[in-house]
Amino acid sequence: MSYSAEGAFTVKYKIDYSKYEWLKKITLKNLGISNLYNLRDRFEGQAYLERFLVRSYGELALEKYFDQPIIDLDQKENNKDYSPAFFYGDKKIALFSFTAGQYPKINRDKFDIGVFILVNLDYRTSEILGFLDFSLLLQLVDNKHLSPLQRKLYFGEFKEFVQLVPINEISLR
Predict the structure, then answer these.
(1) Residue of 145, 142, 148 whose CA lies nearest to 160
(2) Can you list the alpha helix ranges (DSSP code H) found in 13-131?
(3) Percent of the chain scored above 90 by pLDDT?
(4) Which of 97, 110, 127, 138 has most Cβ atoms within 10 angstroms of its Cβ?
């Protein structure tokens, strides 16, 4: 547990090296290549690995925070489009994992709570920054920089991190 520069409560997790190796193995399998050197020869493969790791590190952090198994390991290994469903009580959680210098895009899925997780791939860390409920989140997104095609997929980008509610204040209200 830590506090951000603004003094807000955040939760930071270090991803075990064994989990990192497992996730790399899944990526290689999903791309149909035998080793990491072949991946580096393909720009789209490297981009896929980074997106997969950012999403997966966020999933692992949320699973650790709630201290319950949420990720179906078989599905994760065998279905490249697998994304675990996170619930807090009967509230569906949307996970927005991103790296420094990015603004997370809020996709047009149905959810009750959005949780934001900052991922550092170099240090294998995930920091849960906080959450917002769906209605407030939609009021704070910015879609000015989205193309018409992106607007069909996303509500917009989230930039108002100071508005996040600390994750330890999540409740079933």
Answers:
(1) 142
(2) 17-31, 36-40, 43-66, 73-78
(3) 49
(4) 97
